[in-house]
Request: fold
Amino acid sequence: MIFEEVEKSKPFPNFKLTRFGDSYFGELMSNYVIAQIINIERGFYIYSHKQKTNEWT
Reply:
């Protein structure tokens, strides 16, 4: 189990760990993660904000 290595004197982390065992979902998730990394690295969120506020300078 994943929590076997967690220090037992501390409380468990407050999140739900889930697994979806579909190969198609894994491909979609990996594409999403890569897209978000590129978005952050290239600053595409700035362009998106400028487009929403009609700043075309």
